[in-house]
Amino acid sequence: MKRNQFLAINLVIASFLLVPFSYTSAVKATEYTSDDEPHIHFVAMADSPREQFLNNISVQSVKCGEGLDLIMKKSNGMPACVKLSSVSVLIERGWGIHVLPDYEKSEDNNSEYFKTGNLSTKVEMVNYFENYEGYLARPETDGDYPGIILIHEWWGLNDNMKQMAENLASHGYVALAVNLYGVPAATTADEARQLTSSYQTEKGIENMNGAVNYLLENQHSLAIGSIGWCFGGGESLNLALNNDMMDATVIYYGRLTSDTERLSSISWPVLGIFGGLDQGITVGSVRQFESALNELEIPNEIYIYENANHAFANPSGDRYSPEDAQDAWEKTLVFFEKHLKSV
User: Per residue in 290-312, pLDDT tens?
Assistant: First the structure.
């Protein structure tokens, strides 16, 4: 009898302990330390990011609790809710990818908002590295022009990137929009997530270096620059860190590093365009990047648009800031003119 009474009491106690947790599940809040792996904290919420995602809620629509921001783990593409102070560190170290909850890509015609040059252009798809094809745009008039490598957002090589290549070509450049994925561009956020998560950095570096060689050998470009947006902005910097034949690097709100040892390989000017409201590429991380460049005496122009957010230069997104985007594009054209056409 005593044994049965003991079991009954324990069951009652257990039921009271379980009740508070039966309506909630844990949200992982990730915080980086000096170790390579993040520390995971649990915050009570109706549904965890993983549960929301497995219930067919798109990555960009996953909801986080107060004081947390949405990020995607690069290794498997799963969403996670992390402390705001941890977002930029996770992105810089390559653990995570920033996700824009209110960013929906409904069209690709972004370049029509940016100033076009006076030169007529011609375009073609070219095989620039192994079996990878890129979109090449150049002035119709024969001649040797500076080369610019365009690196796409997480969507891949879409019509927007092709039109931006044509835009740059109209200003007197041979513009090669690369395809780092080697497959057609994504049309949904989930497709983009899968492409980004499976992206191999080392292969991407080989790909971009192949693009540089193509412009030097096949287009006879005497100077080479690169430009990338978001995912491509980080890869534009990555190209600079792994190729000493560059003459100009442009980064639009891409992943950064302030490691002076890595940055010391750069000996040409860098232009950085960032948003002051960006929680992924924070103002603090931008200033650290700028300080590292200055310490190494690398010429640089860093612009932070105070009221602009991540992806503010993309007209098809909810965070598009027209005046800031157009001003940034004018600065980009002046930068390339100064550092590529004077070589």
Answer: 999 999 999 999 999 999 999 89
Nearest to 99 by CA among 193, 32, 233, 28: 193
SS3 229: strand
Q: Which of 277, 271, 273, 256 is closest to 319 using CA atoms?
A: 277
Q: pTM score, two decimals? A: 0.80
Give the total residue count for the chain. Answer: 343
Tell me which residue of 328, 277, 266, 333 sits closest to 300, measured CA to CA: 266
Strands ordered across the beta sheet of 68-73: 79-83, 68-73, 96-98
State the pLDDT at residue 73: 81
Identity of residue 58 = S
CA angle 37, 41, 42 (to 5 degrees): 140
Q: Where in the chain are the domains?
A: 2-98, 111-340
Residue whose C-alpha is closest to residue 231's, from 103, 135, 128, 327: 103
In this structure, which CATH number among 3.40.50.150, 3.40.50.1820, 3.40.50.300, 3.40.30.10 belongs to the domain 111-340?
3.40.50.1820
